[in-house]
Amino acid sequence: MDARARLVTIDGPSGTGKGTLAEQLAERLGWHCLDSGALYRVLGLAAQRQGLALTDAAAVAHLAGALPVHFRAGRVWLAEDDVTEAIRTEQAGQAASRVAAHPPVRAALLDWQRARARPPGLVADGRDMGTVVFPQAPLKIFLDASAEVRADRRYKQLKGKGMDANLPDLVMEIAERDARDRSRPVAPLRAAEDAILIDSSAMSIEEVLDRVLEEVRRVFPELVS
Predict the structure, then answer these.
(1) pLDDT for 3 beyond 60
(2) Given pLDDT bands bounded at 50, 70 and 90, which one contains residue 1?
(3) How many C-beta atoms lie closer than 10 Å to residue 43's C-beta?
(4) Pairwise CA distance, residues 132 & 1, whole Å
(5) pLDDT: which is higher, 214 or 94
(6) Which long-range contacts (CB under 8 A, 24 or more apart) does 203-212 make?
(7) What sequence ranges are listed for the domain Cytidylate kinase (predicted)?
(8) Residue range 161-184: average pLDDT?
């Protein structure tokens, strides 16, 4: 198979573990990894730092067109500022969801994302990787989990970092974000018609990875022994 067609997309709502899955799968395959969620988180952070209203689609899209974002050695950089930790807060996640709802913003970042598809292959995670950004991908995964399970995972993650967290509030925030992502007018969160659906509610990341590798072996039998 042409290396340019070596694409695996992993879509799903926030907190399903798709980012970790994408990183581990890309490492196992020796492919590149695209974290589109981080891209929108950086954009939201950059907009806030510049004092832009997240509801101002034109201004945020203009910023997106020249966003100085870089991914190096597992870290995320906004110009010369390492923002790896800054973009992983709940506030950054909410900002990302808001700026991602604007059609001009998504259009401004589309070419940047598509340019990441290069040999030997790409694992791309996000919310519209298999439906909009890479609809030609031969393997599409849609990873899901209940809002309660995702909130509990996030709660434990925040507590483990010594940060304050309220479980009921997290459940509500996740449900609200899901509704916003699924109802936005452009590139709404949904599974592609040919996506493999995986519910990770009762699965460990290792179990999810094994399940996805089964599909990789089926679609790319020459790549994984």
Answers:
(1) no
(2) very low
(3) 26
(4) 22
(5) 214
(6) 205/17, 205/20, 205/21, 205/24, 208/17, 208/21, 208/143, 209/21, 209/24, 209/25, 209/28, 212/8, 212/10, 212/21, 212/25, 212/141
(7) 8-217
(8) 89
Residues of the chain with pLDDT > 70, as a percent, come to 97
Q: What is the CATH number of domain 3-216?
A: 3.40.50.300
Annotated binding-site ranges for ATP: 12-20
- CA–CA gap between residue 150 and residue 7 (Å, rounded): 26
| Dihedral (CA of 200, 205, 207, 211) sign | positive
Tell whether the torsion through CA atoms of 40, 73, 22 and 134 is positive or negative.
positive
Cα separation of 65 and 222, whole Å? Answer: 38
pLDDT in tens, 114-143: 988 999 999 999 999 999 999 999 999 999
Provide the annotated binding site.
12-20
CA dist list (Å): 178 to 30, 101, 137, 148, 208: 32, 12, 24, 12, 21
**Residue 119, burial from CB neighbour count under 10 angstroms (0-12, 13-18, 19+):** exposed
Is the separation of the CB atoms in 13 and 127 below 8 Å? yes
Can you state the angle between helices 36-49 and 103-114, rounded to 10 degrees? 130
Contact 119, 1 (CB under 8 A): no
Structure tokens at 171: 């459940």
